[in-house]
Amino acid sequence: MARPLLAAAALLAACSGDGRPPALSDFDFDSGVADESLVSVVRDAVPLREMPSCGGTAVSLTRRQASAILVIDRSGSMNENTLDGVRKWTALLAALDRALPRIQQNVSLGLVTFPQALAPGAPRSQDTVCALRTALDLEPRLGAAAAIMARLRADRPEGPTPTAGAEEVAGRWFVNEPDREGGRYVILATDGAPNCNTALDPATCPCTAAATQCDPRMNTFATINCLDDARTTGSIRRFREQGVFTYVLGLNGAEAYAAVLDAMAVEGGRARAASPRFYPANTGDDLVRELSTITSGIADCRFALDAAPPDPALVDLRLDGQSLVHDEGQRDGWAWSDATHREIRFFGTTCDRVRSPGQLMATANSRLSGTQFSAEQTAKRMRPSTTVRAPARCTGATKRARACVYSAASARRSEAFTVEPSRTSSSRATG
């Protein structure tokens, strides 16, 4: 079952009337009007892009359960070094050994390696070197980190890169498990372009190796060196349409095929916002960082809403009362996971904060999302002691919600600020 994060809720309602409050510039800060409640600017006020509606009805916001299948490239090029001189296979295992134990109690983890290891003495042909298991190496379960690492440490890289087939094995397992609760993810780690499609013509296809390697006159394995991008991206897209999302982690060596890995990442539905769209890892430290980013998003920092909000642009998230930054750049803050607007993901230090105990609240119809400023930055824009008046029609809702926003639309100041009822607010205010 999905577990709520303490008192997690979403508020879905609006102030009565047509009524967005007037801009701050419509009021004289120094005059007094008897029938309007006074409000004082919060010292750690948050400048916001838009103005909210106030009040709301609580619905649940729950941390997503998840299952993830690691699809690991064990092709021969994984014997080469990272840019900092560590064997890629060794660096990848070290990064996984740090990332997996941290999430294994919250995420069911499984494994697919590709290509399948040749049995000792088995004949080498285009078919055998590209062969894949028809089942997962390990099926997803909680607490699987040690078993996954033991399986990988017993392996050694060899052979080509049948990525499309490996994605099929992982995606098909998820599709055949429709009742599996929570998010379903593939984490694909590879250092090269997909190949191993014997239906392609080596005379016309882009080659994933030196041109001579795609010449049947010079290489009896020429056909499997053709770039298999269309089949691979098609497979990733098909499973994404069935709710299985793919993260693409690209180790050094994939640079020449960055456009291919970008397309794979985009089709997987979990691409980075910046270029490259896949998660790049050229050193051991890169691997640790990017794997941590991926696994954190799956395990700790992804939350489901019971229903999509009426307007996804009007959602505010607060942790222990502090508004969190809506960051479409996915660096530090939160963003929608996809176009359904049923899931929110946190990034950077905000993700770290959300992992800790606290009260997380989402408010729809709020327009409270925006860039967060510190108290020092805020003080440069408006003195914390400044007092402004709230229009009578909204102060009742303001007092219930304990927060509202009023736009400062003058030429000198265009920000908006969170405000709260002051201790001296009029008891005659109505909502």
Q: How is this structure best described in words?
A:
The structure is a single chain. The strands form three sheets. Strands 12-11-15-1-3-10-14-13 form an eight-stranded mixed beta sheet. Strands 6-5-4-7-8-9 form a six-stranded mixed beta sheet, with helices on both faces. A four-stranded antiparallel beta sheet has the order 16-2-18-17. It has ten helices and 18 strands. The protein folds into two domains: 4-56 and 303-421, no CATH class; 63-300, Rossmann fold, CATH 3.40.50.410. The chain has helices at 88-103, 126-129, 145-153, 163-175, 229-240, 258-268, 284-299, 348-355, 375-379, 392-401; strands at 4-12, 38-41, 58-63, 66-73, 107-114, 138-141, 183-190, 244-251, 279-281, 302-305, 315-319, 322-323, 333-336, 343-347, 360-364, 387-389, 404-407, 416-421.
- In N-to-C order, the SSE pattern is EEEEHEHEHHEHEHEHEEEEEHEHEHEE
Mean residue pLDDT: 74
CATH homologous superfamily (4th level) name of the largest domain: von Willebrand factor, type A domain
Strand order within the widest beta sheet:
12-11-15-1-3-10-14-13
Helix content estimate? 10-25%
Largest sheet: 8 strands, mixed
CATH-assigned fold name of the largest domain: Rossmann fold
CATH architecture of the largest domain: 3-Layer(aba) Sandwich
What is the name of the CATH class of the largest domain?
Answer: Alpha Beta
Count of helix runs: 10
Q: Main attributes?
A:
single chain; 431 residues; alpha/beta; Rossmann fold; eight-stranded mixed beta sheet; six-stranded mixed beta sheet; 24% helix; 22% strand; elongated; disordered N terminus; disordered C terminus
